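> call design_seq(struct)
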């Protein structure tokens, strides 16, 4: 048996459900006076019905609040991490620059201390270029005529002899090193005082020529400048003997010398200009007395 439901009945049911939902929603949001113990059966029924809904709303609100707090915490933490990371990078850069300056100052102090006993005017310069093509081994420095540098000026570091100024302009100079085949230096063996001529052989090695076979030469002997001529002061360290061949049929010995200066790491040099022993006489661009 089917009952027909007209539009009026439908509207009444819809209105009833709507009023019931609104009533329950209102009760769920309402703050009850928990001090009143004289509740009716209907009130207790409403409480039992609405309380779980209130609990659900409260739990949901707490969940979303916690979620929002955690999200904001993560966002703020990421921002702080970026700031701290940038500060660490800046500090590392400052420390790196400080260490570089500190090392450079130490090198310069060693250079100046090394040259105290050499009675020459000195010009401190930085190496800005290097040419090792073929048999030519040259350096370029950032000092020139305007700084008192002339051709044929000796060049040293705290480790020992570097070479000689080959060409010079107003603000720059080119140095031919002792590794260059065209550079020949009159030297002596510090232990025996035997004379020879040092000549570049590239590959960070030099040949020591014209040491007679009768002279005692041992691996580890120190080679220094002899002071003959007007270019190199006497006693500048050059290197050590690393190989000796003494043939009974030859008049001289074949000797290899490894320089004290590490030319792969050279950064600063000292150029020896005017000898203090000459009363500070001025030199022309070719290193000759005026």
């Amino acid at each position: 048996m089917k009952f027909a439901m007209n539009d009026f009945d439908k509207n009444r049911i819809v209105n009833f459900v709507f009023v019931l939902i609104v009533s329950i929603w209102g009760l769920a949001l309402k703050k009850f006076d928990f001090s009143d113990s004289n509740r009716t059966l209907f009130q207790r029924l409403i409480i039992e019905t609405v309380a779980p809904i209130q609990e659900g709303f409260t739990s949901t609100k707490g969940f979303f609040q916690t979620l929002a707090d955690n999200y904001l915490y993560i966002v703020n933490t990421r921002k702080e991490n970026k700031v701290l990371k940038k500060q660490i990078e800046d500090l590392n850069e400052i420390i790196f620059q400080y260490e570089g300056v500190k090392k450079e100052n130490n090198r310069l102090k060693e250079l100046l201390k090394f040259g105290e006993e050499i009675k020459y005017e000195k010009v401190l310069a930085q190496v800005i270029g290097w040419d090792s093509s073929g048999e030519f081994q040259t350096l370029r420095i950032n000092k020139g005529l305007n700084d008192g540098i002339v051709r044929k000026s000796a060049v040293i570091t705290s480790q020992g002899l570097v070479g000689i100024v080959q060409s010079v302009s107003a603000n720059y100079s080119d140095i031919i090193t002792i590794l260059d085949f065209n550079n020949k230096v009159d030297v002596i063996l510090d232990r025996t005082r035997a004379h020879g001529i040092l000549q570049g052989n590239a590959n960070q090695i030099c040949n020591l020529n014209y040491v007679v076979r009768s002279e005692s030469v041992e691996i580890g002997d120190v080679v220094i400048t002899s002071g003959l001529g007007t270019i190199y002061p006497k006693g500048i360290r050059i290197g050590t003997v690393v190989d000796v061949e003494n043939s009974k049929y030859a008049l001289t010995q074949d000797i290899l010398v490894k320089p004290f200066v590490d030319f792969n790491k050279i950064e600063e040099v000292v150029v020896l200009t005017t000898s203090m022993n000459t009363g500070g006489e001025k030199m022309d661009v070719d290193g000759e007395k005026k």
